[in-house]
Amino acid sequence: MRPPAAAPSAARILVVEDDDTIGRHLETGLHGTGYTPTWIRTGTAALTEAAESTYDVLLLDLGLPDMDGLDVARTLRARHPGLLIVVLTARTEDIDIIAGLDAGADDYLVKPFTMSVLLARLRAHLRRRTPTTVSEQPRHLGDLVLDITARRCTLHEHEIALRPKEFELLALLARHQGDAVSRETLMAEVWDENWFGSTKTLDVTMAALRRRLLDAADSTAGSARLPHITTLRGHGYRLEQN
Ligand code: CA
Q1: How far, in Å, is the centroid of ligand 1 from the Cα of 73?
Q2: Domain total in the chain
């Protein structure tokens, strides 16, 4: 069972888009649906605005006049781990999409996209973030403590800053600890049953998750016991205690 949909008006959205037509279209469409959008045109303004106000979602054009949108994504991801970042790009090459996800984006839309697709994606992302009313006990995976209810992952009491999708991926594997979880299940549960893009995003997110866990283990001088995530070729992944 999925939690109920979040009230859209609760989400504050920062739109970064230098194209007047697209920017106005996004602002009007989002406002008309009950969201609270703020539209700005440059990367510099995005960094300032995100520092001064709190946002839930960043809709980010990659081709900005003053800086590369990837740098904006990277900077804001580092500063705001919980921010949902959706990249809007005219670039359709896989390599650009991977760069966007690597820079910290949670999702992307390739231009031209319709307002209804954008709204469907936002609903899916925001619904998934709505906290469930049932709290779960923190899970101990080796020395890693995963508190799904609090959305906190700690190793030797140091919090590991995971991006939203990395956390959800780890949480889903942890809930099925010891079981094989298929790629299809992961895509449907962590992303969306209406996912339109390639499943490459799963591989990128998994690589980032593994890297973050290893970095955290390294900072404990290698003494920490991490859960092991096995890749099951042609099927999916399995998380086990070490
Ligand atoms: Ca642009």
Answers
A1: 14
A2: 2
